[in-house]
Write a structure and sequence with these properties.
Layout: H1 4-15, E1 28-30, H2 46-57, E2 66-68, H3 72-80, E3 85-87, H4 90-97, E4 104-110, E5 121-126, E6 140-143, H5 151-158, H6 165-168, E7 170-173, H7 179-187, E8 192-196, H8 197-200, E9 211-216, E10 224-227, H9 234-247, H10 251-260, E11 264-267, H11 274-281
Parallel strand pairs: 1-2, 1-3, 6-7, 6-8
Antiparallel strand pairs: 3-10, 4-10, 4-11, 5-8, 5-9
Length: 283
């Protein structure tokens, strides 16, 4: 399990870009809510990453910059600047996918905050307290994955429309991905938790806490990389995809990946989110 300091470093590295007030067709906007990081910590990783991408694509030096967003307001401001690319949470991608000129997912990161490129989410309880999702109606649920803007995503996509979390559970958000979740479960202060694969498999849970999984989602790319079609032509999107997905196997790129503390960039095809889009955007 990554430490908070390691995760903050990882997110900054995943961004690997400088902050900027505006965006352009070769620029990347990075927003990974729930994973600690600041725009200042991205600085040390800018040069090598942009140099690698620029050299591979033949872009003029300095033509690609990056905007690391610390909150939703910064992301919306950066989005208004019309960037070419973004790395965003799956739920924000789905919000954009329901509108006009939807961004196109083309890759996912394997290794960010210790997660694989596609992750399942689970509703878990302390063993012996419940066996089905229906058993939890009206119960208390805690998670570090709860944000004001993503409740629809959790209800419709992660839980497949089986329940509306706002009316089904008593919700509590915690910033802590481990102790802030498992200690309240162990003590009985909370009845259930929404966690991901990494959290489910984490060692060093409180003594005596055994978990029962009562529901698991389909796997989903939690932080897809997307291209905005108004700014990026399909050929350029595919070229950037090729560069990124080969970067960690390339001798020069391998060093960049090591500094980013990621395993690889994994390609996504155009239909990878079709089922999620249907669930999320459907009435």
């Amino acid at each position: 399990m990554n430490t908070p300091a390691h995760i903050g470093l990882l997110v900054a590295a995943a961004a690997a870009f400088a902050t900027s007030a505006s965006a352009g067709e070769k620029d990347f906007v990075i927003w990974t809510p729930g994973i600690p990081g600041t725009s200042e910590t991205a600085g040390p990783f800018i040069n090598e990453f942009t140099k690698y991408i620029g050299n591979k694509r033949g872009w003029p030096p300095g033509s690609s910059t990056g905007i690391y967003c610390e909150d939703a307001g910064q992301f919306e401001k950066a989005l208004a600047g019309k960037p070419g690319f973004a790395m965003i949470p799956a739920w924000r991608y789905l919000q954009l996918a329901c509108g006009k000129n939807a961004p196109e997912p083309f890759a996912a990161v394997d290794g960010i905050a210790g997660m694989s490129s596609r992750v399942r989410f689970h509703i878990v309880v302390k063993k012996g307290t419940a066996t089905t999702l229906e058993d939890l109606k009206g119960k208390r649920l805690i998670s570090n994955h709860l944000f004001e803007q993503n409740h629809k995503f959790i209800s419709r996509v992660l839980l497949g429309g089986k329940v509306d979390i706002d009316t089904f559970f008593q919700l509590k958000r915690t910033p802590s991905p481990l102790s802030g979740i498992f200690r309240p479960l162990a003590s009985g202060e909370q009845d259930a938790a929404l966690i991901n694969d990494e959290q489910l498999n984490a060692p060093n849970k409180p003594p005596g806490l055994e978990l029962t999984v009562v529901y698991s989602s389909d796997p989903i790319a939690t932080f897809p990389l997307v291209a905005f079609p108004e700014q990026v032509k399909p050929a350029e999107r595919e070229a950037v995809k090729k560069v990124l997905t080969g970067m960690c196997d390339d001798p020069a790129g391998k060093q960049v990946c090591a500094s980013l503390q990621i395993n690889r960039f994994v390609p996504l095809d155009a239909g990878s989110f079709d089922a999620a889009i249907q669930r999320y955007c459907g009435k």
